Structure formats: structure tokens, C-alpha cells
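Closing statement on the coenzyme A sub-project.
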Amino acid sequence: MNDGIIDIVPMRRRHLGAVVDIAARTHPRPWSRDLFAGELDLVTSRAYVVALDGRRVVGYAGIMLAADEAHVTTVAVDPDAQRRAVGMRLLLALARMALDRDATALTLEVRLSNRAAQELYRRFGFVSVGARTGYYQDNGEDALVMWARGIDEPEYRALLDTYTERYAASTRVELVPVYREAGR
Ligand SMILES: CC(C)(COP(=O)(O)OP(=O)(O)OC[C@H]1O[C@@H](n2cnc3c(N)ncnc32)[C@H](O)[C@@H]1OP(=O)(O)O)[C@@H](O)C(=O)NCCC(=O)NCCS
């Protein structure tokens, strides 16, 4: 680790080699470089960050905005860097960016068997509201659909403030700026 400091910064094209490498090590059907690059081009509806340990990319995450909902599209941490609160700091960045974009809810799908991710999401107020049967094409596994609603309310902001304070000494954060569509 780099003195324990993790930088959270906007994902850029120069990060994509490392991002794709982590995707391949953490997902049975990993996103391609082109898919990530396409997401980065959609600046008004997407926001992606990476976590850096020094110059090394150790994780990434992103959201897609639709109306006042932010859909968590992907979250992953390099297996060599897991259980060091990198996932916590990535989720915190996603929640902050969702609020910056006036979202009131976060949602995502997660494999039924993925207890680690579900536990991380619960820490951000996500609750399971149902399942999508056979959602994952590689093995036909069901997805849990999870929501965190009311993220703009004081209680949720207080939760985020607690986490921000917890990681303040060990994290530097630069979030993706808000790009609005022309006319909005
Ligand atoms: C899920 C994932 C992103 C978590 O990243 P991480 O940096 O290791 O998570 P953190 O260290 O921030 O952990 C936060 C909390 O989540 C829970 N958690 C994380 N990994 C866990 C595990 N392997 N088993 C049980 N709980 C776990 C714990 O409650 C943990 O808090 P604690 O360490 O104080 O007990 C990581 O395991 C990963 O990349 N997995 C593969 C990809 C994936 O599943 N992505 C999500 C797809 S929906």
C-alpha cells in the first residue's frame, strides 16, 4: 500500500488496461475495453471512478443515471487489495456522485451467491426487494435486486458523512464532475 492512502479519481482511458485486467480477474463474463470506453463517452448519464494505491489501479466502480435513480453498473476490487475498505470508498464515491446528480435512489443487481458484495451494499442501506430469475447468462444464476431509497434525506447523508469521516485520513477524493445535457 502507498502509506495506506487510496486516491479515488475519475476513470480515464489510461486506466482501462488495468481496469480490464481487474474485470477479468473478478467477473465470469468481464466487460471489454470497448465497453468501458463507450461508458466513459456517455458523460451526461454515467460516472466512473477508479481507486489508486499509488499509481496502481486497485478497483473501479460506476453508475448510470436514469431519471432520479442511479443504477450501480459495476464495482470491483483487485483480489490482492480486497478487505482494505476499497469497496467502501468506491461505494461512498458512487453515492456522492449520485447525490451531485440529484438522484434520490441507488439500485443494482447482484448474484444471489455473492454474499461479500451484498454485505458491502447493506452497509450503504441497500435492501433486497426481489429477484430476477436466471439473470446471469454464464450460469443461469438469479440476481437479487437491491435498492437504497431516500439517499437525499438527512439520515442517509449522515451515514455518508460517517463513512467520509472514517476514511478521511486515508483517502483523497476527486469525483467525476457533473455534465448536464444542453438545455438542462
Ligand atoms: C465485493 C467487493 C467489491 C468488495 O470489495 P472490498 O474492497 O474487498 O470490500 P471492503 O474491504 O470495502 O469491505 C466492506 C465490507 O463488505 C463486506 N465484505 C467484503 N468482502 C467480504 C467477504 N469476502 N466476505 C464477507 N463480507 C465481505 C464486509 O462487511 C466488509 O466490511 P469488514 O471488512 O469491515 O468486515 C470485492 O469483493 C470484489 O471486487 N468482488 C468481485 C467483484 C464483485 O463481486 N463485484 C460486485 C458485483 S455486483
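Residues 103 and 174 are 19 Å apart (CA to CA). With this model delivered, the sub-project is considered complete and its resources will be redirected to Aim 3.
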